[in-house]
Amino acid sequence: xxxxxxxxxxxxxxxxxxxxxxxxxxxxxxxxxxxxxxxxxxxxxxxxxxxxxxxxxxxxxxxxxxxxxxxxxxxxxxxxxxxxxxxxxxxxxxxxxxxxxxxxxxxxxxxxxxxxxxxxxxxxxxxxxxxxxxxxxxxxxxxxxxxxxxxxxxxxxxxxxxxxxxxxxxxxxxxxxxxxxxxxxxxxxxxxxxxxxxxxxxxxxxxxxxxxxxxxxxxxxxxxxxxxxxxxxxxxxxxxxxxxxxxxxxxxxxxx
Length: 256
Ligand code: NAP
Description:
Elements: E1 9-13, H1 18-29, E2 33-37, H2 41-51, E3 56-58, H3 65-79, E4 84-87, H4 102-130, E5 133-137, H5 141-144, H6 150-169, E6 176-182, H7 188-194, H8 200-209, H9 220-231, E7 242-245
Parallel strand pairs: 1-2, 1-4, 2-3, 4-5, 5-6, 6-7
The protein binds NADP nicotinamide-adenine-dinucleotide phosphate (NAP).
């Protein structure tokens, strides 16, 4: 299947490592030009090397609206267009009801959510011109809960709501908006989370045993494959959808 992504300019927040890194690498394989918005220099440089000049790194940690505005401006100044946006950057920071505070909650929601809106807002005129697509990376925790992480979950749930909301608002421009819900993907973020348990190996084996398809984690490349498909014209009649790429973790009977 030819995805026709050659020369398409796609922004990926958190595009240097983990799921975002796999999306950037997958896009390079398709001939697209990833714009990696991520502070991680070493990992971004590795991707830039593979891209042989056909990628852009914007080394910032998105926080304020000005960060997002500048990232869009730099992209357009260098590459002249935007064909897609993958909102992906985020971290499960464990701000709960008991182990948090109103201030920490507001900060966690802001860190995990606001830049999704900012990037979409500032990229919009370019996405209108290209009839581009947006993919929001959410999490199965938005629909299952996790416990002890109210800020992150509030942001992940809002990303699902915004996916529907933007899909509706952007219908007139033929801009498609979809969300992917990963469950268990072994990324640098996941690794540091698993290391927080007293017996990480045991915890990992326990989680793997509950993943219905193959009793294994989803690979970052498997999330990337869905994201890249959704960005492509082959997904031309898919919008407003929440897609679970999770080996059946969320919906199948985990006792099986
Ligand atoms: P990861 O391994 O930590 O990679 C995320 C990348 O984004 C890192 O390079 C990180 O840099 C960067 N980043 C974080 N905040 C940023 C910001 N504000 N601006 C720019 N870059 C930023 O995380 P991941 O596991 O791939 O997670 C990616 C997305 O998938 C997140 O939205 C997460 O909620 C979602 N997700 C992941 C899983 C899973 O099992 N891994 C499950 C459900 C949902 P630093 O390392 O320097 O912070």
